[in-house]
């Protein structure tokens, strides 16, 4: 793995669904002039490809065999992140309920993780000015030498309320069903064998339940600035 330029800062933001990883990471990256990578979008993209190509998402062997086939490309501008699969814009289709319900099974397959992890490390190494990478295993597995690791948490109630607010008007949803689906996905992501959702020992944990998004962004910006100041 190549190392980024000396002034570059690598920030890893992990945590369960609805804790504010994407919103926080995008805003922090935009404020500090860093690139941004949504690793969940990559796992969603490979899941979408499996579904559209008729791969049984309950068959880990079939998933493993197909894992190397789709070409997944992530654009890392925090103001306009993009994701394509085999040249097609996947940003809409990866957010459907079907993909959301199947992504944990696909992302648990070791061959999928190896492939996507390599992609993520290449993108981080190529980000000259630094990057904010968000996901589930960034601090523990993908970028264990990140300059700053943040682990976001929030109560299941707060996370479900945030998610169902987001889904309103798009796909029929209710709060209890959203909460149940979210807890199920957390359990699958935390319980898998290969690089599960986990807080790195050296990560700073931020409970966002009672914080506004702006407060979380401010908190992470301050943590990055402290790291940068400490390196001078
Ligand atoms: N601290 C917060 N307070 C209230 N709403 C928030 C907060 N953080 C994020 N949100 C909202 O919750 C939803 C989920 O946030 P998102 O950043 O997508 O979470 P994650 O990437 O962890 O799944 C978004 O609609 C976002 O605007
Ligand atoms: N680094 C990562 C990121 C996501 N994922 C998987 O991808 C799924 C979707 O991630 P996401 O970040 O888009 O999920 P949300 O929190 O945005 O709902 C997760 O539930 C995990 O199964 C992963 O395994 N490892």
From TrEMBL:
Query: Where, by residue number, does the polypeptide cross the bilayer?
Result: none
Spell out the Pfam families in the cross-references: Cytidylate_kin
Known catalysed reaction(s)? dCMP + ATP = dCDP + ADP; CMP + ATP = CDP + ADP
Species of the source: Streptomyces goshikiensis
Q: What is its main location?
A: cytoplasm
Instruction: Please state the Enzyme Commission number of this protein.
Output: 2.7.4.25
What is the protein name stated in its UniProt record? Cytidylate kinase
Coiled-coil region: none
